[in-house]
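B., you asked whether I could sanity-check this one before it goes into the benchmark set. Here's the sequence:
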Amino acid sequence: MGEANTHIFQINILLKSIKSTMRAKFIHLCPGGIFINTNSVPSTSDLNTIERYLKSINSAGNDKVLAPWLPQSKSYLKITSIPYIQPNGNKLTSDNIITTMKHLELFEPVNLAAKPRVIKASSKSDITIIWFDIWDS
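And here's what the prediction gave me:
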């Protein structure tokens, strides 16, 4: 069994021990780090388990192992036709949007990359367009 296969085997044993369904498929040393391909998106505990394993390898110094991370890109979401003046008479703000998002199951998996932007559809309109920058992983 090659060294890479040994690491995959050990990582998968550790993932199984924490009752994770994610499994490492292959590992590749590349410029700037180690690439690990998995069968699903890792959870925080999966990433922590992999980090602990990598730090335990004798040839890798703890100071050289950075926290694992997922590749990310930004996308946006646009919601239209939301009233600018709220029922309480106040203007709609980014903070109102964030508070509302926290209470809606639809937005539970959404990670904002920045505060939502509330833009009036036109200077004389009472309708807004809300733009969200979100992280994809």
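One thing to flag: The mean pLDDT is 85. Otherwise nothing jumped out at me.
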